[in-house]
Design a protein that fits this description.
By secondary structure, this protein is α/β, with parallel strands linked by helices. The protein has twelve helices and twelve strands. The strands form two sheets. The chain has a seven-stranded parallel sheet with strand order 8-7-6-9-10-11-12, with helices on both faces. The protein has a five-stranded parallel sheet with strand order 2-1-3-4-5. Helix 5 packs across helix 7. The chain is globular.
Length: 319
């Protein structure tokens, strides 16, 4: 029976899911999280290794010759040296498309919170401010209607298109930039150049994977091309944004507000300039974390391993 280790299972399964699918495939050991200095010892002689954000480097692979398979409990797989794994004949699999709907939903949740400040006003009621009000209603923050405004989506794959469909249902015009336009996208949005998207959008939502060529794409130069008072959303990858440049744009009012679920270094560092920026809403990388989407992730991860053990690996990122 294969020996299976999960190096950082707490995020995927804090206790509301079951590991029974993986337990049926081998002898399973689960760690909530693994410090860097214990990665090699915890892998030990395990043949099957699952990780979410615990890095598996070339040095780790050299030190753990028993590894036959690495499963990433996420879509992004940059925590694994996939080239080194390939050299050693170790397939690395990921879990695509498990959170498409909920991540799109969360992007809109960030936008709606910026537009209505629901929690801020609910807190005000709980604090008695409505009770003390001389008027039948009050608000102390700008409220924004989205119908008729333009949402520009950068990266118009599955998640971008879900976001676009919701925005369109709210009466927004949707434009998109993507390197591979397709018919399903054209049914939702008008494809435009990146510069046109910057210039025309009232709201810009990022839904692209991170590559060297788009790292830092939201910077002082691209922000200068945007409308004054634009709203920026990012629940894809933190390093798409030069955070100091965005903080300066928020503080100057060039960018009205930002809704972010990801930052460049996670957990967020105390010196991140966005923590002190005006109108910056930051959530702790939870777009993907609804129970339903984590269950889908679990199911796909189990199937990935089952197919590998049958000699028919799927979702391999280093074929």
């Amino acid at each position: 029976m294969a020996k299976i280790v999960i190096l950082d299972g707490k995020t995927e399964n804090p206790g509301d899911l079951s590991w029974i699918g993986l337990e049926a495939l081998g002898q399973l050991t689960v760690y909530d999280r693994t410090p860097a200095d214990q990665i090699v010892s915890r892998i030990g002689d395990h043949e099957i290794v699952f990780t979410n954000k615990t890095p598996i480097t070339r040095a780790t692979l050299d030190a753990c010759p028993s590894i036959r398979y690495i499963g990433v409990l996420a879509t992004g797989y940059n925590v694994v040296d996939v080239a080194a794994a390939k050299e050693k004949g170790i397939p690395v699999t990921n879990v695509p498309s498990y959170g498409t709907d909920v991540v799109g939903q969360f992007a809109i949740a960030l936008l709606l919170e910026i537009c209505h400040h629901v929690q801020r006003h609910a807190d005000a009621v709980a604090q008695g401010r409505w009770t003390r009000s001389e008027d039948f209603c009050f608000w102390d923050y700008p409220l924004i209607e989205l119908a008729g405004k333009t949402m520009g989506i950068i990266g118009f794959g599955r998640i971008g298109q879900v976001t676009g469909r919701i925005a369109k249902a709210m009466g927004m015009e949707v434009i998109a930039y993507d390197q591979a336009p397709n018919e399903s996208g054209r049914a939702i949005a008008r494809y435009v150049s990146l510069d046109e998207l910057y210039a025309a959008s009232d709201v810009i939502s990022l839904h692209c994977p991170l590559f060297p060529e788009n790292t830092g794409m939201i910077n002082s130069e691209s922000i200068a091309k945007m409308k004054d008072g634009v709203i920026l959303l990012n629940n894809s990858r933190g390093p798409l944004i030069v955070e100091q440049d965005l903080a300066e744009a928020l503080n100057s009012g060039k960018v009205f507000a930002a809704g972010l679920d990801v930052v460049s270094s996670e957990p967020i560092r105390e010196d991140n300039p966005l923590l002190r920026a005006r109108n910056c809403l930051i959530t702790p990388h939870i777009s993907w974390a609804a129970r339903e989407s984590r269950q889908r992730l679990m199911d796909i991860a189990v199937d990935n391993l089952a197919q590998f053990l049958k000699g028919k690996p799927v979702n391999v990122v280093n074929p």
